[in-house]
Amino acid sequence: MNPANHSQVTGFVLLGLSQIWELRFLFFIVFSAVYLMTVTGNILIVAVVVSNPCLHTTMYFLLSNLSFLDFCYSSITAPRMLVDLLSGNPTISFGGCLTQLFFFHFIGGIKIFLLTVMAYDRYVAISQPLRYTLIMNQTICGILVGASWVGGFIHSIVQVGLTIQLPFCGPDKLDNFYCDVPQLIKLACTDTFVLELLMVSNNGLVTLMCFLVLLGSYTALLVMLRSHSREGRSKALSTCASHIAVVTLIFLPCIYIYARPFRTFPMDKAVSVLYTMVTPMLNPAIYTLRNKDVIIAMKKLWRRQSCLLCFQSTDATDWTRQKP
Fold first, then answer.
1. What PANTHER family has UniProt attached to this entry (predicted)?
2. CA 260 → CA 173, 190, 200, 201, distances in Å?
3. What gap in Å lies between CA 31 and CA 51, rounded to an integer?
4. Contact 74, 274 (CB under 8 A)
5. Best exposed site among 106, 138, 192, 249 by fewest CB in 10 Å?
């Protein structure tokens, strides 16, 4: 079905978080700060891992990939939401809506698969420490990350492929601050029961199964930790607790949104804000910024940049003095 021949709607009105100007302005201030912290924290982690050879390990490679994905994920929705909060009539074209939908599920799908890879990485590191570098070498790690990207692309293109066939003849108001499958399907001028089942299977059930697999793997890890030394157990527990916290913050909202019929519930927008804005900001703090190795690497990077600026300033001063 060609959407150009069956759709009278050329764009959608985004109802956003509120219609009250004072609330929208307050949301703009709060979420501008949240987005700034998200960008700064995640880009800082990527820069630190890339610049420090001591962090060129599998675990930090995966963490830097997660930080990059969090930066991209929040940038898909946050900048437009901030602009729309100050706009009197926020609208998005049909093509722009599908583009946002594609990248939202593309990056989100990669994150889900990458978290599964990270759980496998921690499982191997704890259960088989002597063979860890052999099992999780650079080639295997690169293949797993590449497979995550392919999986995210397939997941996303299925969403777009199913949505683009729907006829939209009005209404044109999306009850959210970004384009997503549940809101779009409700605007279609056709029976979408079968399509909803397909979407729930592709989104909700896959997410739920991945979440259960992750919980099972971390439970097995916690059981194995009983045989480790106190110091090793403490370090591994800290890592596992961080991973479980992030997994919970990412997966539970997704399960709430996608693993049920696409109906409107009072908590929908709050949950959407949680996993599109808040979780990408918290990931650096939970996963990485409290890690001693990362903190040391950040201090080294800061000193290196300070010394570089100092040398540049000294060179400029010397050149000025030598100038006739």
1. OLFACTORY RECEPTOR
2. 22, 20, 7, 10
3. 30
4. no
5. 138
Measuring CA to CA, which residue among 288, 208, 203, 205 is closest to residue 246? 288
Mean pLDDT of 186-194: 84
Q: What is the pLDDT of residues 223-256, one digit of tens each?
A: 777 766 676 667 667 767 777 887 888 888 888 8
Residue 124 CB contacts under 8 Å (≥ 6 apart), including other chains: 131, 132, 135, 136
Task: Round to whole Å and give the CA distance between 162 and 24.
Answer: 33
Q: Which one, of 40, 109, 46, 113, lies nearest residue 73 by Cα?
A: 109
Please indicate, yes or no, if residue 310 is contained in any of the structural domains.
no
* Structural domain contains residue 321: no
Nearest of 136, 133, 154 to residue 144 by alpha carbon: 136
In a domain, 318, yes or no: no
Task: Print the domain residue range for 219.
Answer: 3-296
Three-state DSSP class for residue 168: coil
Q: Is the pTM of this model over 0.90?
A: no
The CATH number given to whatever domain includes residue 285 is: 1.20.1070.10
- Under the phi-then-psi rule, with left for phi > 0, alpha for psi from -120 to 50, and beta for the rest, what region is 248? alpha
Our count of domains for the chain comes to 1
